[in-house]
Write a structure and sequence with these properties.
Layout (H helix, E strand, L loop, with lengths): L4 E7 L10 E5 L4 E5 L13 E2 L4 E5 L5 H9 L3 H4 L4 E7 L6 H5 L12 H17 L14 E11 L2 E4 L5 E7 L5 E4 L3 E2 L5 E2 L6 E3 L2 H12 L4 E2 L7 E2 L2 E10 H34 L1 E3 L5 E3 L7 H31 L7 E6 L16 H25 L11 H10 L6 E10 L5 H18 L4
Parallel strand pairs: 1-5, 1-20, 6-19, 6-20
Antiparallel strand pairs: 2-3, 3-4, 7-8, 7-13, 7-16, 8-9, 9-10, 11-12, 14-15, 16-19, 17-18
Helix pairs in contact: 1-4, 6-7, 8-10
């Protein structure tokens, strides 16, 4: 596990804004920031605020998305190509450039890509070279062709919405294996089959496919008006870029199909068990149910149903084994992921921002507060190597659990604070920097 790094990106001023007085102090190896006029009221004495030396890099208002990408993400790509995971989170109040940093504006036509798309482009360039390398045996088989699986979903309160599947609601649950699963609504198929699909992974073999996929997903994001911005993010948007192959996608689809076959068989076994045992119960004199000694439970029927259930459970295990064999026999980078999280606008976390809200927005704000506090505590617990890490504290941290603690893989995490250099937004900027300071200290195992 590696310490979480915190970066700060200043937003450029508009012509109508007054610059905020700040000082960046370089330390070895990190930076601290001092805000001199944290109280813009001219009738009071300004009270400066100084951070700990927690920021790995300070990006000036003139910095581009490419600068951010080359500093924060690009150094991690060799590890992604070895199958590891990188998590990049953008935090700040609405209007400071979180979405611009992750995706870019008008990315289908603008030459300045967001860091998510720059990552996809460079990964696909490398995978394309592997696919067409005459010296690489993987290029000889179509099923071993490498590409990117793209997932896009957003978390609103306690529900995930699949942005690549018509924004269908999904449930965030912890499975019997201790892992977090995000699964859609139950689909009833022919012959009693019941299928519950995970979040859609769109297979992309070229950069244009990624552009179109991300564009469609962004078009389904939920936004609203706040006291800071007309298009405030009321949700946490998550984008996963995973290195996949044809054979891996097919093997995973096999698991979904076998699970759908198991469900009706398992239900039938449960029904047989309950029916046989209920048949042997009678209502006693005291009004309670007691076993009727004259009725024998047909254990043969129960065992027959349970045996059929075990057969189908075996089919599921065989399908899961095929997935494992694909990983073992394929490219070492299979399953390597870069996860980008565009966190909800932090003005909901900032009590100094007075916003007229509906009851629904109040509930959303409370959940956002809970999510962001839980995230800080998870980062702190991981850095201190605590025995219990509070992933279950919020849906956001439950989802990130799979990326912070990938099975048998390394993970790298970074947070990019997007802040305004305008004096008019000093309170929101100060709260963002304070949160980033806490996360940076916690990420190093501090308070």
């Amino acid at each position: 596990m590696h310490p979480l790094k915190v970066y700060t990106r200043w937003r450029p001023l508009t012509e109508q804004e007054t610059p905020l007085s700040t000082t960046t102090i370089p330390h070895n190896p990190n930076y601290s920031i001092t805000l001199s006029n944290t109280n813009p009221n001219p009738n009071t004495n300004p009270k400066p605020w100084k951070s700990d030396p927690t920021y790995a890099q300070i990006f000036a208002p003139t910095s581009t998305n490419q600068d951010i990408y080359e500093t924060v993400v690009l150094p991690t790509l060799p590890d992604i190509l070895k199958g590891n995971t990188s998590n990049i989170l953008a935090y700040g109040h609405s209007g400071t450039g979180k979405t611009h940093t992750i995706f870019g504006y008008d990315f289908a036509h603008s030459p300045e890509l967001g860091i998510c798309l720059s990552t996809a482009k460079d990964l696909l360039d490398t995978l394309h070279a592997l696919n067409h390398s005459s010296s690489d045996p993987l290029s000889k088989k179509r099923e071993d062709k490498l590409g990117l699986g793209v997932r896009m979903y957003e978390l609103r309160q306690k529900t995930a919405f699949d942005l690549l599947n018509s924004r269908r609601p999904c449930h965030v649950r912890e499975g019997y294996d201790g892992r977090t699963h995000i699964r859609g609504e139950t689909e009833v198929l022919d012959e009693g089959k019941v299928r519950v699909r995970p979040v859609v992974a769109k297979a992309c073999w070229g950069f244009e496919e990624v552009l179109e996929t991300v564009r469609c997903g962004l078009g389904r994001r939920a936004t609203g008006s706040s006291g800071v911005h007309d298009l405030s993010s009321r949700t946490h948007a998550v984008v996963e870029l995973e290195i996949v192959s044809w054979s891996l996608l097919q093997a995973r689809e096999g698991v979904v199909e076998r699970e759908s076959e198991l469900v009706p068989v398992a239900k039938a076994a449960t029904d047989v068990y309950l029916r046989e045992h209920m048949r042997a119960l009678v209502l006693g004199e005291g009004g309670e149910y007691v076993v009727d000694p004259g009725v024998r439970v047909d254990l043969g029927k129960i065992e027959e149903a349970e045996g059929r259930k075990r057969v189908f459970e075996g089919y599921v295990k065989e399908a899961e084994e095929r997935v494992r064999r694909v990983f073992e026999g394929g490219f070492e980078g299979l399953g390597g992921r870069v996860v980008f999280v565009d966190l909800a606008g932090s003005e909901y976390f900032d009590r100094s921002v007075r916003v007229r809200q509906t009851p629904q927005e109040v509930r959303e704000g409370r959940q956002i507060n809970s999510d962001l506090l839980a995230l800080k505590e998870v980062i702190r617990a991981r850095a201190l190597k605590m025995a219990r890490i509070p992933f279950r504290a919020s849906p956001l941290t439950m989802v990130l659990r799979e990326h912070f603690v990938p099975a048998e893989r390394e993970s790298y995490s970074a947070m990019i604070l997007t802040v305004s250099s305008a004096a008019e937004q000093v309170d929101a900027t100060l709260n963002t920097l304070k949160y980033g300071n806490l996360v940076g200290v916690a990420g190093k195992g501090g308070r």
